[in-house]
Every structure is written in C-alpha cells, then in structure tokens.
Amino acid sequence: MTDLDAGAGAPEGQAAEPAGIRILAQFVRDFSFENPRAPDALRAGAAQPQIDLGVEMNARGRDDGLFEVDLKLSARASRDDGPLFVVELLYGGVFQITGVGAEDIEPVLLIECPRFLFPFARRIISDITAEGGYPPFMLDPIDFAGVYAARKAQEGEVGHA
C-alpha cells in the first residue's frame, strides 16, 4: 500500500532535474526471532527444513518531501516434527527521490528502493539465524519488479471481482 505525493515536473523553460535516489537513513523498525525448539532442533543430521518466505514492500510520502520505504521479510523454517525458527524483519529507509515524475514514483519506491535495502536486511537475517544455532540463512535475491507486478495484478483482480 502506498500513500504518495510527488511534485509536478520542472517548470516550463527549466531543465528537468536528473533522476536520482539517495538513501538518507536506514533502520530496523521491528524485528523478531523465535527458536521454539532449541536446543533439540539443532542436532546435526536432521532432514532439510521447509522454508516459507514472505516479502512485502510499503512506501509513503512525508511532509518534508522525502519518502519512507519499508521492506518486510519473513522466513519460517519447519520440519515434519514442527517449527525450527521464525524470523520477521521490518527494515526501513528514508529516501530522497529527484527527477522522477508523479506517474513513475510508485515503481521507483516499491522496486528500486527495496533493492537498496535488501542487502542490509539479508545480512541481519543471516546473522540472527547463525546466532540462533543454525547455518546462516542467506535469502536468495528477490525480483522486486516481479513482486510489484504480481501485487498490481492482484489489485486489478480485486478491483474487478
């Protein structure tokens, strides 16, 4: 879900500002790690766990002309005998976007900005799973354009239902 307000293009007679994205701040907004069956679940030789992943992106404009973008990543690992770990991370950033028209701002915020945040969020998840006694869980790269397109398609289906 987005709540965006981008300024209009450059005034007539002035050159358009070159497109640019600046990250002004990054932060952990919310974080949770559960390891409910430790230490029994940490024994070597057990079957590979089933991993369920979740990805969400949200953006909103701010009164100061900047944008906040949140990347929510969740991973749930389980085996036939129950859950191993659950990690949820809401990682945020404050971005300055220049030279992008109002019609293009949403894809920039929900595709390009999460691409900047992802490596940092990935490292946090890798580190916490290692600290929890498991091999570091390295998330595969995410196709944010594909996630965005699927979300827009889903919104279109809901609108026509």
Mind explaining what this structure looks like?
This protein is of the alpha+beta class and 161 residues long. The protein has a single domain, classed as SecB-like (Bacterial Protein-export protein SecB, Roll), CATH 3.10.420.10. It is 27% helix and 37% strand. The protein has helices at residues 105-131, 144-160; strands spanning 2-3, 20-34, 50-61, 67-79, 82-98. It has a 5-stranded mixed β-sheet with strand order 1-3-4-5-2. A hairpin with a 5-residue loop joins β3 and β4 (67-79). α1 (105-131) packs across α2 (144-160). It is elongated, with a radius of gyration of 19 Å.
Topology:
Blueprint: E1 2-3, E2 20-34, E3 50-61, E4 67-79, E5 82-98, H1 105-131, H2 144-160
Parallel strand pairs: 1-3
Antiparallel strand pairs: 2-5, 3-4, 4-5
Helix pairs in contact: 1-2
Write a compact overview of the structure shown.
With 161 residues, this protein is an alpha+beta fold. It is built from two helices and five strands; from the N terminus they run βββββαα.
Strand order, sheet with most strands? 1-3-4-5-2
User: Strand fraction band?
Assistant: 35-45%
Q: What is the CA-CA span between the terminal residues?
A: 19 Å
Q: H/E series, N to C?
A: EEEEEHH
> What is the CATH topology assignment?
Bacterial Protein-export protein SecB
Put simply, the count of helices is 2
CATH architecture designation:
Roll
CATH superfamily: SecB-like
What ranges have pLDDT less than 50 throughout 5 or more consecutive residues? Answer: 5-11
| CATH class value | Alpha Beta
The major pleated sheet works out as: 5 strands, mixed
